[in-house]
Amino acid sequence: EHAAELLSHVRFETIPASELVSEIQPVARMMLDPQCHRLLVDAMNYHLLPYQQNTL
User: Which of 13, 15, 31, 41 is the S-S candidate for 46 at Cβ 3.0 to 4.6 Å?
Assistant: First the structure.
């Protein structure tokens, strides 16, 4: 219930992309909860689009 609120304080963009994929993405909550999923997608975009990091 409060997972997204709690996880919004985690700086996922500081986690290496390889760890996001291997450790964070497999967690069911990250894929099933829309707000948690958005946090994961935002972090992945940060790594995929380095030229936009100032705007993310």
Answer: 13
